[in-house]
Amino acid sequence: MRLVRSEFRKLLTTRIWWVLLIVEVAYVAFIAGLFALLFSTGADLGDGAAAPAPEGMHELVYSAASSIGYVFPVLLGTLAVTSEFRHQTLTPTFLTTPRRSRTLLGKIVALAIMGAVFGIAAFAIALLVGAPLLAVGGLDTGLGDQETWLMVTRGVLALMLWSIIGVGLGALVPNQVAAIVIVLAFTQFIEPILRTGAAVWEWAADVGKFLPGAASDALVGASFLSMAAAPGSSSALLEWWQGALVLVGIAAILVGIGSFTTWKRDVS
Fold first, then answer.
1. Are 84 and 90 spatial neighbours (Cβ–Cβ below 8 Å)?
2. pTM score
3. How far is it, in rounded angstroms, from Cα 261 to Cα 207?
4. How far apart are CA 4 and CA 17, in angstroms?
5. pLDDT tens-digit profile of 152-171?
């Protein structure tokens, strides 16, 4: 607990966590509101009658919190580690706690909690913005459905795992600029291209479902990128528990390799 409190103090004394949180909330609010508005206005048949509410449309709106919001906790986890390498603040920590694995564990716990905070904030704003706009269009908000709240719970878990993945990446790639480039390039370009190519190339479909973003969407249960995947096709998402296992596995691999390589090096 002492190490976890120490990690929280170090994290909360910087501006990066609340800057990322504000940007995440604003971005999710915009995307969730935009799609809710499009769905609502598209529900009008043109003769004054309302179209039947598309099944699961509210889940697609709310899942914007995870399908686009996941990049913020992974960046937070990455920056929390790489900043310590950059400013060499790990040196006094290692002097007081020679067992470096305990320090890394404390950071994982602290960042997992922060990931939950980011997840709660992202889904809260998605619900607050998306639900009223869906209701105005006569669409089902899903707020009374148990599955909606299960999706939210799984989404918060997904963002917790993403923050741990960020910690593992930061431990493996301590260069801050390189780590940020890797995160942004993979999440914003490489994976979206592979998942889009799944509709054309069979090999991309087979690989795509095991990518971290696809696994996250599977854990949550909905996403815009998975809309085009027909149920039962090779590009369809994994089961939610399989998605969770993939994310846990990726986090474990990154943390494990990072802890046995970069984390053991001299940082002074």
1. yes
2. 0.90
3. 28
4. 16
5. 999 999 999 999 999 999 99
